[in-house]
């Protein structure tokens, strides 16, 4: 589904990614892990076509990634802070963003995705009154409306309390037939959701199964 080969990115003389390789297979849920400033955002922006690739290639479903060439709904992206309209209701926000990505409004799909994030009963509540967890779930609903096979989620539980984090995790666990790249620094979240981990360190990526990654972390802590 996603194949990154020999990707290098830099800002001026500062190297951020150096000859990075990463293969994410269909239906894998891969966590993108690294220290602050390691280059996670640069990798995601490269994948989305926001940042032009300076060296190397990114292919998605066998086609070279490019913002100009990519089908509109090929990748669903949930940024760390989704910008919603606070004076509109949850349903009105859904309708607004749905019209932005499709000519034909699918009211049944709107209902389905709002129910999947447990916001159907709150659909007529003005978003200004939503909790942080509800706002993040509404952002996820907007992303899911695109019905993309590939999801890129940037710190989807960032800033949430334990209850809000649990709600997002349970929603993501219920998703079927999705290939997901998930930026996170919560080990318990990764353990619950992910099949693999892409560890970004020293401008390179090493991919592990979740079990192997947790084992390497345990060994590092014991040294």
Based on secondary structure, the structural category is alpha/beta
Strand order of the largest sheet: 6-7-8-3-9-10
Strand content: 25-35%
Shape: globular
Order of helices and strands: EEEHEEEHHHEHEHEEH
Rg, Cα atoms, Å:
18 Å
Sketch the major β-sheet.
Answer: 6 strands, mixed
What fraction, in percent, of the residue positions are helical? Answer: 25-40%
Mean pLDDT: 90
Distance between the termini: 37 Å
Annotation field: number of helices: 7
Number of strands: 10
Low-confidence stretches: none
Short description:
The protein is of the alpha/beta class. The chain is built from seven helices and ten strands.
Provide structural commentary.
With about 220 residues, this protein is α/β, with parallel strands linked by helices. Helices cover about 35% and strands about 25% of the residues. The strands form two sheets. It has a six-stranded mixed beta sheet, with helices on both faces. The protein has a four-stranded antiparallel beta sheet with strand order 2-1-4-5, with helices on one face. Helix 2 packs parallel to helix 4 (about 130-145) and helix 3 (about 105-115) packs across helix 4. The longest helix has 14 residues, at about 130-145. The chain is globular and about 50 Å long. The mean pLDDT is about 90.
Question: Which key terms come to mind for this protein?
Answer:
single chain; 223 residues; alpha/beta; six-stranded mixed β-sheet; 7 helices; 35% helix; globular
Write the layout of secondary structure elements.
Elements: E1 2-11, E2 14-24, E3 29-33, H1 40-48, E4 55-60, E5 63-64, E6 75-78, H2 90-101, H3 107-116, H4 132-145, E7 150-154, H5 162-173, E8 179-183, H6 187-193, E9 196-201, E10 204-209, H7 210-222
Parallel strand pairs: 3-8, 3-9, 6-7, 7-8
Antiparallel strand pairs: 1-2, 1-4, 4-5, 9-10
């Amino acid at each position: 589904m996603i194949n990154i080969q020999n990707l290098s990115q830099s800002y001026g003389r500062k190297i951020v990614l150096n000859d990075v390789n990463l293969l994410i297979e269909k239906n894998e849920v891969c966590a993108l892990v690294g220290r602050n400033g390691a280059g996670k955002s640069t990798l995601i922006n490269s994948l989305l076509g926001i940042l032009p690739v300076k060296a190397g290639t990114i292919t998605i479903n066998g086609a070279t990634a490019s913002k100009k060439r990519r089908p509109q709904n090929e990748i669903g992206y949930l940024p760390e802070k989704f910008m919603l309209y606070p004076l509109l209701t949850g349903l009105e926000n859904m309708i607004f963003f749905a019209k932005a990505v499709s000519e034909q409004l699918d009211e049944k799909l709107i209902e389905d995705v709002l129910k999947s994030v447990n916001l159907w009963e709150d659909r007529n509540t003005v978003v200004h009154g939503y909790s942080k967890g509800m706002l993040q779930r509404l952002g996820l609903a907007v992303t899911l409306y695109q019905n993309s096979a590939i999801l890129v989620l940037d710190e989807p539980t960032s800033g949430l309390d334990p209850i809000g984090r649990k709600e997002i995790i349970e929603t993501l666990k219920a998703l079927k037939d999705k290939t997901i790249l998930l930026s996170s620094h919560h080990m318990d979240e990764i353990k619950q959701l992910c099949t693999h981990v892409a560890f970004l360190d020293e401008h390179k990526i090493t991919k592990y199964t979740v079990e192997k990654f947790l084992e390497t972390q345990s060994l590092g802590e014991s040294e």
